[in-house]
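CORE FACILITY INTAKE
Project code: CF-77B
Contact: R.S. (postdoc)
Sample description: multi-component assembly, two entities in total
Requested service: structural model of the whole complex
Turnaround: standard
Below are the sequence entries exactly as provided by the requester. Do not edit them.
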Amino acid sequence: MADGVGVDLEDLDALARFDGAADRLVRRWLDGPEQAWCRRQADPARAFVVVWGCREAAFKAGAGARSPDDVRLRLVGTLARGHGRALRGGRVTALLGWRATGRHMIAVAVGAAHTEPDLVDRLLSLAVEEDRDADSGYRRHRVHRHGPGEAPA
Amino acid sequence: MSGTADVEARVRALLAQVLDVPASDVGPGFSEASTATWTSLNHLMLVSQLESEFGLFLSNEQIRQLTSFDRIVETVARHRSGG
């Protein structure tokens, strides 16, 4: 069972310069429930970016896929924040969450082997804090070391 | 313009547009490894535009191999020749 941690950061407006591309990307790359989630959001281009960022994070966490386009997600939330599960063969392979921080979206996923309560939320808080520091021009270099079963410092 | 030259010109224009780089930068040797804007999101956009421009449907395996100008031109040319 996957025990990795994956983080991804995307520019929410990455698709803004491609007129009408979002609908095509949603149909081409997402499965039915992912498409339905995107259709419920106000901005389909940003919705696609959120789904893709979550897929990247789940893939990096070792969600049992060969690439992010093999990951399937079930999401609950809005463009601003939410949580979800990554699936493979009907089984949950990773838990994930995301938040929008101004111009970025940050997604964090942890392999399903992790059982610590609120781990995704705690890692998201750290990632959001780092992104805000970077945006304000104040970069801190911190290393978070933790293995499976250990909470981050 | 020969068939291959036509494919190269259209692929060059498409890569320049999607990756937001000057068309003059795109040519043999231009690759994902040396292009900062060749992100995974832009790769999806690139595949979507290639399929639309050339009337293709690319498999996951082919998509993973589209990592350079040369490979894209080769893949598109092979499709167009029915290979």
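Facility notes:
- Chain B has a mean pLDDT of 92.
- The interface with chain A takes residues 18, 20, 39-42, 44-45, 47-48, 51-52, 60, 63-64 of chain B (CB under 8 Å).
Invoice: internal transfer
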